[in-house]
Amino acid sequence: MKSFIRIGALISGSGTNLEAILKACETGDISGQVVFTGSDNPEAAGLKRAERRNIPTFVTNYRRIIKDYRNNPDPQKLPRDFSLDEIRSKQSFFAKATDPAKVETFLRTRAIAEVDLLKQIQSFSFDLLVLAGFMRNLSPYFIDRINTDPARPRIMNIHPALLPLFAGTDGYGDTFRYGCKVGGCTVHFIDYGEDSGPIIGQRCFAIQETDTIEDVKNKGLAEEWKLYPECIQMFADNRLRVVKMTHTLPSRKIYQRRVVKIIQE
Ligand code: GAR
Q1: Is the CB of 159 within 6 Å of ligand 1?
Q2: Phi, psi angle pair for 235, to nearest 5°
Q3: How far is residue 101's CA from residue 96's CA, in Å, rounded to a whole number?
Q4: Tens digit of each residue's pLDDT (9 = 90 or more) over 49-80
Q5: pLDDT at 1
Q6: How many whole angstroms separate alpha carbon 62 and alpha carbon 41?
Q7: What is the CATH number of the domain that holds 240?
Q8: What letter would DSSP give residue 88?
Q9: Which of 178, 166, 154 is nearest to 232 (CA)?
Q10: CA 237, CA 26: separation in Å to the nearest integer?
Q11: What's the CA dihedral at 34, 162, 189, 259 to 10 degrees?
């Protein structure tokens, strides 16, 4: 069933993906409209792209929130419905061996920031939340309050690498330094790990011997601007299903993963 969707966007930087999404909404390549743009960074240049189109914007200042908590780790700042044990057991950003104090501080500061983010977001009605260069990990505290129907996730991210390779903050840099001959980008639904959710779409490009890291980034971004609108439109067309797949490996071990199945038009 095709529908017109309301899209919320979160950005941290220049917002060229946001621009591609806004243009696709204007040309009808996406049957939808961006209803708000938020950022963790008050300096994000991309906020201007939304303001120019009279789209409401807001900032949740993560840096200040994290600094305030580190200076004064007052448990009163935490939301009342925050359970550290619950969020810690769900998240998979950190390996089991990671210093527990580090994990706790991370999850507490994120929940404090996410309460503010949720408060701002929930004043809008939206169908899909797109992370367009949003450089903060969203914790299970936030995700569970947006994905209220487990069968229909509605937070998408774009990542500058062919996942599951090179998760993290510098996908094109990692691709270039590794000496890859092909780079790419991935759109996926968010889950409780870092860039680990079900993959919706990917695009790739050749890396030539003479390419610099800047060339790789430019080639990658040009693919992102096509890929993200395509994936958003598949969501609007209700063509994305997340299903749990089970495989038996040659070793007889069972491998299970939630993957996106794309319904043909
Ligand atoms: C894009 O390359 C996007 O894939 C990446 O940030 C850039 C944002 O550019 N996202 C991540 O690395 C997320 N972990 P933009 O602000 O010009 O859209």
Answers
A1: yes
A2: -65, -45
A3: 12
A4: 999 999 999 999 999 999 999 999 998 999 99
A5: 62
A6: 7
A7: 3.40.50.170
A8: H
A9: 154
A10: 17
A11: 140
Q: How far is the CA of 35 from the centre of ligand 1 (A)?
A: 20
Q: Is the CB of 221 under 6 A from ligand 1?
A: yes
Tell me which residue range forms the domain holding 221: 5-262
Ligand 1 neighbour 13 (Cβ under 6 A): yes
Q: Which residue has tokens 């695009």?
A: 203
Our mutation pick for probing the ligand 1 site, out of 221, 223, 227, 228, counting the most ligand atoms within 8 A of Cβ, is 221
Residues of the chain with pLDDT under 70: 1-2
Instruction: Supply the residues annotated as catalytic.
Output: 159
Number of the ligand 1 atom closest to the C-alpha atom of 44: 16
Minimal CA–CA distance to 119: which of 45, 189, 65? 65
Question: What is the 213 CA–ligand 1 centroid distance (Å)?
Answer: 15
Q: Are strands 128-131 and 57-59 parallel, antiparallel or unpaired?
A: unpaired
Type of residue at 255 = Y
What is the pTM for the complete model shown? 0.96
Residue 67, H or E segment: helix 62-71
Residue 14 Cβ inside 6 Å of ligand 1? The answer reads: yes
Overall number of domains in the chain: 1
